[in-house]
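Quick log. Single chain, no ligands specified.
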Amino acid sequence: MTEAKGGAEIWAAGIGRKSNAQYGSDLMVEVLRELGIKYIALNPGASYRGLHDSLVNFESGKGPEMIMCTHEEIAVALANGYARATGQIMATGLHDIVGLQHASMAIFNAWCDRTPILNLGGGGPLDTTNRRSTDWVHTALVQGNAVREYVKFDDQPNSVDAVAESFLKAYRIAMTEPKGPVYICLDTDVQEAKVNKPMIVPHAQLFRPPPGPGANPESLRNASRLLAEAEWPVIVAGEVGRNPKALPPLLDLAEALGAAVIDSDGRFAFPSTHPLNLTNAREEALRGADVVLALDVPSLGVPLGPSVRERGNFAPIIAPSCKVIHITLLDLERQSWVSDNMWLLPVHVPMAADTAVVLPQLLEQVRERLTANKDSAKQVQERRRKIEGIYRDTRKKSQDWIEKTWNEKPVSQARLFGEINKRVQGKSWALVSAHGRRWREAIEVTEPAHGMGGGRGGGVGYGLPSSIGAALGFKESGRLCVGIIGDGDFLMTSNALWTDPSTRFLCSWSCSTTVLTTMTKSIRSGWRGRANGRWRTRASASASKSRRRIWRRLRGGFTSMALVRSRSPISSAQPWIKRSKSSKTANRRSSMSSRSRAKSGTAVSSVPGSPLWGVSPSQNSSSA
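-> predicted structure:
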């Protein structure tokens, strides 16, 4: 087993604190804690047993908390929803090649959603002399190759000394705009390497991502001039809502210009109840536009194109003379394998800048130009009256559709959306998943929590786990989380309900023939993940062949695995889940395929609020 080198000279330089790690995976957990990562979603696998062991037993109780999932795709989609709800990155645990391939669809969705996720995968040992038979087919020469085309960064640190830098670099890249998922492969030998010299945990604030850039001054002046002089300006809001700080200046800019606003069917950007919102009259609003301001729109061709798209040359709705301004950082992305930017449309004023930084500056310049023009106030008022008229007509059409289909059987979409809208009135709530195109006509969305967006990769099975992840993010807020999920999408990952982390979550399952509304509460919680780390241990190499694995039903209806040693002495004084600190001969982690944390004892599982449950060989002598 490899030994970690010392890093005391770096610690002495004042950029970190002394590590308490005894093993490589302990250091990994310390860095995760330093980065402020609260949760890691995983389906347990032997390739990261070292990391799992450290999450459970190394300075227990400090986090990250494990969220147990039944599938890696669910784990990554859950992390996607959590990040979209909170803006914070979450980690996942992916078991070697098979787990990574299971997770690949959800990673691709996160790539298209520009969602930061720290995906940690097990692998190896790369030292082939340490491999078991299954390790060969579960280990790749460069494991990140499997997802390299749709992650921002992948790495495979080959020593404990390289771990901290790898984690810090991955975090920084994932959280730098445009954000996205990253992947790190953790070799089992590195996880289980003993740390026998001083190591450091670097201060995360010294490696934080840079703030978003502002606009080029000349481009900003050109944009404000075009908007202030426009006869019919239209604002198209894409993923601008990823930063809630950008939304107040967006609202103020629309009102200052008297401009129509179109939400491009992604994340919430503009209240549906505002009379300048013409999302449901998109084509009518765009046909007369002479200036379009696009904000973080991944594909301009979608909101600027026709509703029905046939094969052949793309024909935008806007006139050829319409001037397009686009403020986004998406042009800084690398896209080759798949391009969700779609059609390349002409942009007259491109700005590679953070909309949260630019919009207040743009608002200030537009106001100055409008004030300088004595006729601007009258033009804005006339334009606003026209837009409000279109808004009222559109709302009437939507209301007519709702009333016409309200009593249809099976239950219509209008009825489903309308009933949800009634139930959430006056409540603190969040729409964590949406299905269908007409929900905006019946559900009033007025704040960022009312539209999470996501799933741009089109991967079926995203809705339910991402909804649970968003509900986890809102766990302490008291919000009722509502998910509208298609039938095929629901059935693809319905077992995600197993992982509902003690949240209030209303799931509306909709399809063409039936609608099922159900409430799920506390189906599973993260404590089971903590117990799982205790299952994977060996008391000693000599006793390994005499052990048998059994399943026992424990109190509370949960199923847990226990490891039982037969024909071996049992010491109740030292349960093996207790971490040994003093004995050098305890062989805390053997060179076998698992790690030991104590000398001997009965295999036990812990249930919160209950005593430790021991299983003796005599109790299960009939179970082979």
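The radius of gyration is 28 Å.
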